[in-house]
Write a structure and sequence with these properties.
Number of strands: 4
Helix content: over 70%
Distance between the termini: 43 Å
Number of helices: 25
Number of domains: 2
Largest sheet: 2 strands, antiparallel
Oligomer: single chain
Structural class: mainly alpha
Strand order of the largest sheet: 1-2
């Protein structure tokens, strides 16, 4: 039996302060956007080591701390498996033409008067298809910034439309890492999380689109969109574009609607992508395999490479080349590495009762459901500002508040939605956050120039707090769940 003493608030804050200081060094002083390449992972391990040292000082054994780490990582394993499948799916959807077709048809929506609305919608579609706001900004986002510039739009305004759509798609996509991470931290499942999150997310994006529509119709612009036709021509020169390709995402969506678990649904989606590549993209497969004809070996090599490693479809247009790149499973390893390191840090903090100490300090401030959700929102935003990483803004508050939400009789999906409504979307508004620094660099627009136009990102945390204070669709645990919080099912009462 361990003879331990509870950590003081000062002790509990030491690892977090160390984490914040080292992250600032990584992001601001040394690595910048490349901090996610490994530097932030090391910082998480260092902060975890500091927490472990304090825990051992308070009487915890290394064996018990290690068990806490293993338990923490185990809780995230389904999300890690999903991330690998997302990489595979992104690869086969690229080589099959599914994602290029979405981009191709999305570009037809552009018109000066509805350019901002169309930009938001296009980025939402691409982000939902890829599960990544970063990929959306670095591909179609760059093209839209250029087109908007030709039409005379303010770059900050265009960037705001891009990021509003990209983060809507990122939030609502089952392929997104943060969309998988939030329910894993809160203790619910992916599909339940997405459905419940739609209650606050859809009103936020509708209001955002109305604002952009008003701006567009009151804005006088001049120019043409010949660049769009060039992009479409370049895409069509290498890939067969047909509406039949949308059967693949429709099937995956139907599987999700029918409550098929995310892992088999994504696996089926990946295989369907490979099958449709064989049906529609035979010439592309031959070219990528550098073969003279479509053989079993050539098709197998291209599809497996698309699922597992970096793959690009070369064209004569540089922007299109950036659009038609994917990293497969290999492209997800950096995110998986970061999540594992974050779970190590969170596991130590939880096992040594440091999170409990911090939570017990914050909980008295939250008397009602609305104030609890507001406290959670403020904590997520604070971590985005101080820790400079959206994953930490989800992981740490998720660990801190998961127990109190159950004790208050709130379904875990209330917490998972709050984490995403505040932790995911506000990261891009902070210049020194990895997301803010990345998008600013990729789009060539300073955070200070676009943040006021990111209407969706600003509205999301406000919307979740409004729902909390007015008790709108706040899901409760049924009585059996209250008595047995480790067995959470999907039965709720509104």
């Amino acid at each position: 039996m361990e003879s331990v003493k509870k950590p003081s608030l000062f002790q509990a804050l030491i690892p977090i302060v160390v984490l914040i200081l080292l992250l600032v060094v990584n992001v601001v002083l040394v690595f910048g956007d490349n901090a996610l390449g490994g530097a932030n992972q090391i910082v998480l391990l260092v902060a975890g080591a500091v927490a472990a040292a304090i825990g051992m000082y308070n009487g915890y054994t290394w064996n018990s701390i290690q068990k806490g780490i293993v338990k923490s990582i185990k809780s995230a394993l389904p999300a890690l498996i999903i991330l690998l499948l997302i990489g595979a799916l992104a690869g086969t959807w690229m080589v099959s033409g599914v994602v290029p077709a979405m981009i191709y048809y999305g570009l037809d929506l552009l018109h000066p008067k509805i350019f901002l609305v169309a930009t938001c919608i296009i980025c939402a579609v691409v982000s939902m298809a890829t599960g990544s706001s970063w990929t959306t900004a670095a591909t179609v986002g760059i093209a839209l910034i250029g087109i908007g510039d030709v039409l005379g739009f303010n770059k900050g305004m265009v960037a705001g439309a891009i990021l509003s759509g990209a983060y809507f798609g990122d939030k609502m996509s089952p392929l997104s890492d943060t969309t998988n991470l939030a329910p894993a931290m809160a203790g619910t499942d992916l599909i339940t999380h997405i459905k419940y999150m739609a209650l606050t997310t859809i009103p936020s994006i509708v209001i955002t689109l109305i604002i952009f529509l008003i701006i567009g119709f009151t804005f006088e612009s001049a120019g043409n969109v010949t660049d769009v036709n060039e992009l479409k021509t370049a895409i069509a020169s290498k890939i067969v574009i047909t509406p039949w390709l949308f059967i693949v995402p429709v099937v995956v969506i139907l599987l999700i609607v029918k409550k098929v678990d995310a892992i088999p649904a994504l696996f089926i989606g990946s295989l369907l992508g490979g099958l449709f590549a064989l049906i529609f993209q035979q010439d592309l497969i031959v070219a990528l395999a550098e073969s003279t004809s479509l053989t079993f070996e050539a098709a197998y090599e291209v599809i497996v490479n698309a699922m597992t490693t970096d793959m690009s479809i070369p064209t004569e247009n540089a922007l299109v080349n950036e659009l038609l790149e994917t990293g497969g499973m290999n492209g997800m390893l950096g995110t998986i590495w970061l999540i594992i390191c974050a779970m190590i840090f969170g596991g130590v903090m939880e096992k040594t009762d440091m999170l409990k100490t911090i939570t017990n300090t914050l909980i008295p401030l939250a008397k009602s459901t609305g104030s609890l959700i507001t406290t959670t929102t403020a904590t997520c935003i604070t971590f985005n500002v101080t820790a400079s990483d959206q994953y930490l803004a989800i992981v740490v508050p998720g660990k801190m508040f998961s127990k109190i939400y159950k004790e208050r009789g709130l379904h875990p999906k209330v917490l998972s939605r709050t984490l995403e409504d505040s932790g995911t979307v506000t990261s891009v508004l902070i210049p020194w956050n990895t997301c803010g620094a990345y998008h600013s660099g990729v789009l060539g627009v300073a955070t200070g120039d676009y943040f006021m136009y990111c209407f969706f990102n600003i509205l999301s945390p406000i919307m979740t707090m409004i729902f909390g204070f007015f008790n709108i669709k706040i899901a409760k645990l049924v009585s059996t769940e209250k008595h047995n919080p480790n067995e959470i099912n999907s039965v709720t009462k509104k």
